[in-house]
Records
---
Amino acid sequence: MAKAAARSAWTSVWLAERAPRRGGRGGQPSGLDRERITGASVRLLDAEGLAKFSMRRLAGELDVTAMSLYWYVDTKDDLLELALDAAFGELRLPDPQDEGADWREQLRELATAYRALLVRHPWMSPLAGRYLNIGPHFLAFSRVVQRVVRRAGLPAHGVTGAISAVFQFVYGYGTVEGHFLARTADTGLTPDEYVEQAMGKVADDPGTADAVHESRDLRAARGGADVADMMDRDFTFALDLLIAGIEAMVARG
C-alpha cells in the first residue's frame, strides 16, 4: 500500500532502475519471469476486467504466491503498465519508409488496427491516460504514426494536430464500442438483439420517443446488415472525413 501511495504521476516501470532479480536463492519461483507474468496479466484482464485485477488473483492464475511476483515488479501499477505495452505489441505496423505505399492507406491501416485493439482489450482505455505510456511497443507504434503522417505533406506545426484528430477519434470510438460490447455481453444478448430491444423501449417512452422518431431517416440511411456492419460503416466514413481534412489542409498550404 505504501508503495502504491507514493507513486507519482511521472513514475513508470520503464524508468525504474530496479532490474528483475535473478538466481535461485531466497524463494524466487522457478520458471517465472516478467514475460510470463505480463502474458498472464493480459489474459486475466481480458477475462475478468480491470476492476477485478489484483496481485493475489494473478498469483493464483500462475500458481505461485503473491509475494513471489515482487521479484519482478514493485507494484500492481508496474504490472498494468507492462500489460498495456504488451497489448500495443500485438499491432502489425506498416513500413513508413516504403516509398511505394500510400500514406492514406497506411494511416487507415494503423487507425483500424488501433480500434480493433481497444475493442479486443477494453481495459486498455482507462490505463492509456493513467500512465506515461512510454513502453517500447507503444513508442514503436507512435513513431510509425508520426512518420506516416509526416509523409502527407503537412507543415511541421500541423503534424501533431493531425495525429490527435485521427487517433483521439479512434480512441474514443474504440472505447465506446468496447464498452457497448461488454455491456451487451453482460445481458446475454447479441449486439443486434440488444439494440433492437433497447430502441424499442426508447421509442415507446414518451420522454425519448421524439428524439428517436426525428432521427429515423438517418438510421435508415445509415444502412448495414447488422450492428457490427453499421459500426464499421460509421468508422470508415468518419476516418475518411479526417483523412480528407488532412488533404485539404495540405492543399491549402
---
Amino acid sequence: MTSPPPRLATYFHVHLISDSTGETLNALTKAVCARFDNVLPIEHIYPLIRSPRQLERILREVEAAPGVIVHTIVDREMRTELEEGCRRLESPCMAALDPMTAAFGRYLGASLTTRIGVQHALDNDYFNRIEALNYAIGHDDGQGGQDLQSADVVLVGVSRTSKTPTCIYLAHRGVRAANVPLVPGSPLPEKLFGLERALIVGLLVSPDRLIQIRRNRLLSLNEDRESSYVDVDAVREETVRARRLFEKQGWPVIDVTRRSVEETAASVINLLANRVAGGGGAS
C-alpha cells in the first residue's frame, strides 16, 4: 500500500489586539497553534490599542484579511466596540484571558481590576529581571572573568549546547545565570570549582546532534572548512570529557539533545527549587 500524500499546511490570519505590550497574546497563540499539525498562523499584532480610532483601523485590516481575532482589551467600551465590529464582519472574536480570570474570580471572590498593563508594572520583580538580564549578557560565554560569586546558576557545556539562549530565558524569569564554555585545551576558571552559592549545571548533547548544529552554524557563517569543530571523533571526545567532568564534580546534568530552550530553562528552575527545598539531582 502506498502512503497518502502529506497534508499541506493550513495558513490562516490571526489578529492579536492588546491594550498592553501584546506579549501575553503572542505566547498564548503560539502555544495553541503548536497543538495542531500543519497549521501556520499569519500573525497581525496590534499592541497598545487604547482609542476608538485605533480600533477602526484594525477592523479595516480584519476586513481585508479575515481571520480569528484574539484580544486582551480591558476597557468595557473598547471591548464592546471591538466585539460589535467583529460581529458585523462575521469574524470570531475571543477575549483570551476571560476563562481564567472568571475562574480565579469565582475561587477568590475578588473583583477584577480595570487597570491596563498591570502585569508590566515597574515593581521589584521587574528590576530584578532587568538586573538578571544585564548579568547574563555580561557573563556570557566565559565573560566576566572569575566574577561568578553572585550567580544563581552557572551553565557549563561544550560549544553549541544552547548555553546563551538558556541564560537569557532564565534572566527573564529573574534568575542570574552565567555560562562557561568547555573549550578543548583551555582550563576552566579556578573559582568555578569553589562556588558555594551558585548551582552549577552541566549541559550535554548527543555527538550526532552537536555535529549537525555546528555544521549549520558554519554554513550560516559561509565557512565550509573541515576542522576538529565538526570532526566526528573530536566531537565525541569532547562530549565524553564533558560527561566525565560533570560526574567527577557531582554537577547535575541536563541532556539538551531533544529539548527546547524553554524546556532546558524549566529543568534548571526545577533544580534550583529542589536545591532550596533540600533536594537536588539531575534532570
---
Amino acid sequence: MPSKAPAARTLPAKTRILRAAMLLFARTPFSETSLRDIAAEAQVDVAYVHRAFGSKAEIFRQALKAASPLDDLFAQPADPDTVLERLCERAFTRDPDCVEDVEMLHLAMQSCSCSEARSILEDLIRTEIARPLADVFGHKDTGRAMLATSFLNGVITMRLLFGSESMRNMPKDQMKALLVAALRGVMSG
C-alpha cells in the first residue's frame, strides 16, 4: 500500500523512487514489481522513474546499494576480526517495512529466484563483499569469502525468513560470537 504521508512527498522525486523501490523489493520479488508499482509508491509519473534510473534492473541495483551501504564493512581498521564483527552485525536485520531498516538481504530473499535479479545480486556480492573480504584475509580467490557469505546468509534466512524460534531467542551477543568464530574458521581454516 503506497505511503501517502505528506512528509514523504517533500523528499526529492529520485529519493522517493529509491525509497519506494527498496520497500517494494523487500516485500515483493523483482519479477513481480513493476516500474508502475514503484512510481505509484513514490507518487511520481512512471516515465520519470524510467528517465531517472533507465531500467528496473538499475533501480534494483541502486536499491541494493542504498539498502546496505557496504563502505563501512571495510573501513579502517580493516583487520580480519573487525571486518568479521561488522559483517556479523548485519545478521541482525530489522523491519523490512521501514525503509530505514531495509537491508540488502530483504531484497535478495524476495528476488533470488529471478534470473535477472540473481545476476545483479551475485555480481554485487562478489565485488562488494567477497572480493574485499578475501583481500582482508590475504586470499587470491574469493572461494572462502563466498562460502562465508553463504553461511551467513543461511543463518540469517533461518533466523528471519523461516523464523526459527530457537535462533530468534538466542541472545544476540551469543549468536554474534558464534557467527564470528564460524566465519573466522571458514576464512582462516
